[in-house]
Structures are given as structure tokens and as C-alpha cells.
User: Fold this.
Amino acid sequence: MSAVPTARNLSRKRRLLLPLTVLLCAAGLLLWLHHRAGLSPYTGQPSDQFLCTADADWYPLDTEQITFHVSNIGGYAGELDKPCLEIQKGGVWYSVPPTDQTGETANLLYVSPGTSDSFDFSLVPYRASLPPGQYRAVFGLHGSREFFSWEFVLE
Assistant:
């Protein structure tokens, strides 16, 4: 008689374990897909220490270069990462990897506090993967998660 309740308990545990296992596998798959999709590492509010502008916020799809004007209006005295390109899909920003590697060697930029500078950003290395849409060039504050950006449309 004691074997019947034990078999029932084991059967209940199996019924609970199977959906839990499926749920964990699905969560793992979603996490892997989320990571693989190239979601932007830059989230939250941009830094208020920099002002970034460009000559326009709309460019034709065949634009080869955009010049960004960066002003250090705060006290940040560190280096900036070269800008990376991101595309917005469904309200979420995704990294756009370059399809061609460029010959540029400088990976860091610098704008002293209280000064401004301009940087040319080439779209040529991304040419093969640029559908029309909302984009942003993101400058990371080197060694931190802070950033600033300029949003623009390519059509």
C-alpha cells in the first residue's frame, strides 16, 4: 500500500519537472538569441557631459561619411571610444557590425573639457548591411558604460 502513494508522488514530480525543464530550456534559448542578436551594450540615459550634433538628421542611403561635432560641456577628461553604429528595430537598439574592416588604427578619441572637435564617421565599412531606418552613432566614455550619441535616418 505504501508503494502506491510513492508512485503517485513520483508521477506528480515528473509532471512538474517536465514543464519546468521546458521553461528553463526556453529561457536559455531566448537568452542565447538575445545575446546573439547584437543588442546594444549602451542602454539607459546618455551622458550629459557631451553634446553631439551633425549637419543633418536625415541622409541618403548612399552617404559615405557623416561628420559629428562633439562638445565636452562637462568635466570628463578621459578618452572616448570611436563611435559604433546601431540600428533601431521595434524600439530596441542593435549593433551594426562593419562588413569591411577599415585601415584605421586609432581606437580612442579625446575632447578636452570645455572644448569641441569634429570627427568623420565612415559608413562605407557598413555598406552591405544598411537597410533604410533609424540609426545612431554611439560614442562610449572609455572604460565605463556611459555614452552619448547622435540619431539619424538613412533612406
The first helix runs from residue 3 to 36.
